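We modelled the chain as a single entity of 149 amino acids. Its sequence is:
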Amino acid sequence: MLPNDFNIISAGLIAIKLSIEYILNSFREYNITKHIVIFSDSLSIKAGSSQSRPNIINEIFDLVDKLDVIVKLVWIPSHLGIPGNETVGKAARFARENCAATLNYPLALNEVYSKIQSYVLRKWQNLWQLSDTGKFYREIEPSVSLGKI
């Protein structure tokens, strides 16, 4: 199970990485295959990069380079009723809701910044709501934000 702060993109990339690690270990142990195809609806696979988890996509490509096999990462569109993709989606939802094991993956730098920003905004909002200063302006602007005026 992934922590609640993981987004679906991160979860998909981690699943691909774990699949490739499993293939790598199985290949070394049994030496049974030379061609592997991994299908994913992750747009990061299609683009070859990830804004949310660039470190994981790099780890995936590093693992593929270690394999002495031909590995194809194939993007398939999601939510189009592709039977295998729907089955995997159901399995992922089941695992998220029912599995007790937790994977510990460090946050990417942009996720750390986002968490810090959310924390600061919550604190600022709390101070803004409890402050006696600025009551009249608070009626006009009840919420704090980082948006430009």
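As a brief sanity check on the tokenised model: The longest strand covers residues 35-40. The chain has six helices and two strands.
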